[in-house]
Automatic annotation (TrEMBL), chains A, B:
Name of the coding gene: moeA
Family: Belongs to the MoeA family.
EC category name: transferase
Annotated source species: Paenarthrobacter aurescens (strain TC1)
Protein name in the entry: Molybdopterin molybdenumtransferase
Catalytic activity entry: adenylyl-molybdopterin + molybdate = Mo-molybdopterin + AMP + H(+)
Length: 408, 408
């Protein structure tokens, strides 16, 4: 193996692999709520202004500000304007009771809140004509101008935006009921290893249950990918290659990315390395622990990532390389929130390797480690809610030192 | 209205409402991947140890450490032990080629990595008998002990744990294929207002499209709730109450929580307040902006939350009250990650009110505001990725000041 590649360089290589090789999968028009978590496929322009009309920000009286001199004035009370109504123009000398969100009547240019009126309650319309004393008010006061949030024809959302509740709420406010999103990518996920047994089957001597498949499929689903699973591949390279090639043809079985686990190291039985012998796939060390050995390339033109075989290495490989690359290339999933935290304990880290430890963020802003550095510790991993990033040039950290933490 | 309640006190009131009133909805046994994001219903104990057997942490040679004196020794090479095999016992004077994850043969107690062997490559088993020179090694070196991650019968996951990829991966590693989770709560979501029109319909003068329904349903789905929607309710209180009561009976239409939007303020046409006149529901001001007016209580025993009518107020009400209460009471969704960020601009905030501004976190650790304080600014909201928390006793902040930020 060559000189280990840095984490940043390998992430960039994954970004370039995904950008360069896989074509746009196309668009999908979906009802708003089904688009939750997906990436917008096109720019969306506002078909109307928001607010659609000048409206009141308060419950109060709509007035012509010029009607009220500095010392205040007594005005006649007009017909009330509830939200949703189309009011008549406001005559000079009148004040119209108006509710929050209701249309500012033609002629009115300001709102005096009910609290500042005398009396400070709305008169009963059934009780006949009434008057109200109001203080002076500057034009525009408590008026939400039409188009002040967005004007008709303006860019509302840019292509690539991840559709969360607020983005979908905006499209609804614009009267839209569907949205064009990017079709989710399909990933073929293959776990390998003669020692690996499907959960639920019998566990004979020397075997372990496959946790990588479940762990990575869950991670991929959470990241918005469609996942195609095969059974566990045994250690026959030609069979493994045949499985992958079933999903690289032009037909509908074709996937956008292939991910394997295991078989990328330097042992004597490395099925993934052997299967890829005639494919443009590189196996290389990344200066990271766990998850150091990585495979990267294409199989019949489909981007290929070979993750190592331990569960913690799989999760770290996904979180450090594939997930951020998807965020960058597809616009979804969202980047993991990055926090600064203080270490609840001292730790050591190997020189020259970026170490990714698993930790739990406390409410007090400290992070404590879950389990040691071992990449097989899946119970410890299940207690963690964060990845703790220890750069390659750091070998010792004391309790209280600040570290970067990625929230899972 | 009385003295405004603090944000913390109102959140606590929501927690107590959800804890006290709604009974456990029961459990649901699901295939592992369908449990993603849901909360574990029961404690899970490990049906086997992890690792299930002592195994090698490296590719190398399994040895009896007592066979190798300080200066090293030449040993005869035994049958190789691939991962997944059940090896024969290791005879004294022999070293067995062993792969990462493979069973440590009986008699062996340490592994020497292949890099430290002379020659530093595995001999071809077909080439006949071979020898290898190995340095001395302490007992236990590069051996992962059976049960070192978790022992058989130990608590693997505690009830209430949110099932993410790592937790599901652990259950798979334990050989499990299904898991009992808490049944998701059902929420009835009703948007109100004479001025509000369903997106896709015609927008006449004075009307606006309903964005609250889409925004809150998306938020609730993201938080793992099942959402029941009704159409938009007009401003007839008795009709609204009838709609709610259809979902509070003992039948299968019954929901666990009711959320309405709008009609909780002090205007003349407050349909939710009027509909709740004979229900144990309190309408009160919370010292928060936006989202100050809140309704809280029960309708026929079902917890009820009345949110204000503006989209930003709805989102803030959900994020500040309902979502954290669900996290606390149900174990899911996960708490929002809280960051410290530096303000990219100065701002002012009303005294005595906790202000929740919308912002965008930059890669440089600063946060800039999106839009002003106005609770109708749904386009600005759609550009934001964070809520910026300005406590009630803070009225002015300068550029560079530190604020608490909740990542959306």
């Amino acid at each position: 193996m060559s000189v280990p590649r840095s984490v940043a360089a390998h992430r960039q290589a994954v970004v370039e692999l995904l950008t360069g090789v896989s074509a746009d999968r196309g668009k999908l028009r979906l009802p708003l709520l089904e688009a939750l978590g997906k990436a917008l496929a096109v720019d969306v322009y506002a078909p109307l202004s928001l607010p659609p009309f000048d409206n009141s920000q308060m419950d109060g009286f709509a007035v012509r500000s010029a009607d009220i001199p500095d010392g205040g004035a007594e005005l006649r009370v007009a017909e009330p304007v509830p939200a949703g109504a189309a009011p008549a123009a406001l005559k000079p000398g009148f004040a119209a009771p108006i509710m929050t969100g209701a249309v500012i009547p033609e002629g009115a240019d300001a709102v005096v809140p009910i609290e500042k009126a005398t009396p400070n309650a709305f008169p009963d319309p059934a009780a006949g004509e009434a008057v109200v004393v109001l203080p002076s008010v500057a034009p525009g006061t408590y008026v939400r101008d039409s188009g002040s949030d967005i004007g008709k024809g303006e860019l509302a959302l840019v292509a690539g935006t991840r559709m969360g509740p607020a983005q979908l709420g905006l499209l609804a406010a614009l009267g839209l009921t569907t949205v064009e999103v990017r079709k989710p990518w399909r990933v073929l996920l293959v776990t390998t290893g003669d020692e690996v047994v499907e959960p639920g089957k019998e566990l004979t001597a020397g075997k372990i249950f496959d946790s990588n498949g479940t762990l990575l499929e869950a991670s991929m689903r959470q990241a918005g990918l469609d996942v195609v699973r095969t059974g566990i591949s045994d250690d026959d390279p030609s069979k493994l290659l045949a499985v992958l090639q079933r999903h690289t043809g032009p037909a509908e079985d074709r996937v956008d990315v292939i991910v394997t686990t295991g078989g990328v190291s330097k042992g004597a039985y490395e099925v993934v390395r052997q299967a890829m012998a005639n494919q443009p796939v590189e196996f290389l060390p990344v200066a990271m622990q766990p998850g150091g050995p990585q495979g990267l390339g294409t199989v019949e033109g489909v981007p290929f990532l070979g993750f190592p075989g331990n569960p913690v290495s799989c999760l770290v490989s996904f979180e450090m390389f594939l997930r951020p690359a998807l965020s960058q290339v597809l616009g979804t999933p969202a980047q993991r929130p990055v926090l600064k935290a203080r270490l609840a304990e001292s730790l050591t880290s190997p020189e020259g390797k970026h170490q990714v430890r698993r930790g739990t963020m406390g409410a007090d802003g400290t992070v404590r480690m879950e389990g040691g550095a071992g990449s097989h510790l899946v119970h410890a991993l299940a207690r963690a809610n964060a990845l703790v990033q220890i750069p390659g040039d750091v070998t010792e950290l004391a309790e209280g030192d600040e570290v970067e933490v990625w929230m899972l």
